[in-house]
Amino acid sequence: MRIAVVGTGYVGLVSGACFADLGITVTCIDTNEAKIAQLKQGIIPIYEPNLDALVMRNMKAQRLLFSTRLTEVLNHVEAVFIAVGTPSDEHGAANLQYVFEVAQTIGQNLTTPIVVVTKSTVPVGTAKKIKSIIQEELDKRGVEVEFDIASNPEFLKEGNAIADFMKPDRVVVGIESDKAKAFMTRLYAPMLLNNFRVIFMDIASAEMTKYAANAMLATRISFMNDIANLCERVGADVNMVRKGIGTDKRIGGNFLYSGCGYGGSCFPKDVRALIQTGIENGYEMKVVKAVDAVNDEQKQVLFKKLKAHFGDTLKERRIAIWGLSFKPETDDMRESPALVIIEKLLQEGCNVTVYDPIAMDECRKRIGDAVTYAKDLYEAVNNADAIVHVTEWKEFRMPNWDIVKKLMKPLPVLFDGRNVFNPNELQGIRYFKIG
Predict the structure, then answer these.
(1) In this structure, what CATH number is given to the domain that contains residue 268?
(2) Are strands 318-322 and 351-355 parallel, antiparallel or unpaired?
């Protein structure tokens, strides 16, 4: 089996490499010539645990190939997976420019039957538009070529993407033809052999499932952050509340951790796109709008705690930031709470020193020399008035607090945005958490 995957971001590169590892010959396509040149040399443009080894193994086996031109492989593959980015536009809607450009290229060059599969996160109705664009281009050429469409949204967690692909909770496939169903069944045969659930449904439902899943997870996070903020005001402990409600089988314990807000490439973008989809269809997504609003406020909670603690003397304070990426095991800083906190601190005239095990280069790309970059977590706290813990990397879990206290200024303080530290172990460091 031969397929093409258009787009070499998290979704496209991970999916392409994993399909190749299942024995499929995969060509990953990207118009970014520099990125493709790097990939051909085994240089991975993103950080994802074990992805480099997976890519190299399948490149050596000649199952994973890279190209800048879809037209070179289009008529030699059974399917094209569209995995390009769908960033938010100024209104929060998904920008489908790159998706439609791929559809145009297919329609302008297709000569053999094919299945076109959307893997990018797209609003309901996008697959129909893709089908229309391809058919329109075929009509312009005056040719008849059979093609089928399908939707196969991804549910990969950054930092655990390979395991999520290989051992998924479920595989959602939207189809409208027997041919597409037969192809997708054959494609995911290894999953079926291992009793993984492949759920077939109509395409619109598959497109909506992706947004609904992310919105539900984001809702749980914002709900707990709302509860945490109330806990602080009434004297309750949100960690105890979380344990108390998480033992209810109807609720469960996942995604009930309070913190300084969610970020990344999925939750913020998809929540806003779902809100916009509601607007476009005459329906107000009241719960989802509240989820988004709570999260925007939550990203400022740590700064507000700092401001309340230091008052008017925050200017020229030296603040250490532990963690930059939006979550551990990734260098992704898109919508990261760290960016909001750093911006606020710089506006107050603070001297900010940052450290992250992986995301330092990404931070340099985003904010340059506006902050000082430390080589490790201890250098970051040297002469600092306060620590702001933003990303729960394992490296931060058990530092030598005696060393930390000696390096910091007198009366040190720690603001924990992920509630991972035990205040009884800090000994001389004042501690503030969420909730």
Answers:
(1) 3.40.50.720
(2) parallel
Query: Structure pTM?
Result: 0.92
What is the span of the domain harbouring residue 146?
A: 2-201
Q: Taking a C-beta distance cutoff of 8 angstroms, is the pair 352, 293 a contact?
A: no
Q: Which of 158, 181, 201 is the last residue of a domain?
A: 201
> Residue 206 falls within a domain, yes or no?
no
Pair (143, 157) in one structural domain = yes
Q: Which of 52, 422, 401, 23 lies closest to 188 in space, CA to CA?
A: 23
What is the pLDDT, as a whole number, of residue 194? 67
* Count of domains observed in the chain: 3
Which helix (H) or strand (E) is 208 found in, with range? helix 203-234
AA letter at 118: T
- Taking CA atoms, 221 is separated from 237, 255, 259, 260, 290, in Å, by 16, 6, 8, 10, 12
- What does the alpha-carbon distance between residue 27 and residue 22 come to, in Å, rounded to a whole number? 14
Q: In this predicted structure, what is the pLDDT of residue 364?
A: 97
Residue 347 and residue 250 share a domain: no
How much is the CA Rg of the chain, to the nearest whole Å?
24
Which residue numbers are catalytic?
266
Residues 268-289 pLDDT 10s: 999 999 999 999 999 999 999 9
Q: Is the pLDDT of residue 250 over 80?
A: yes
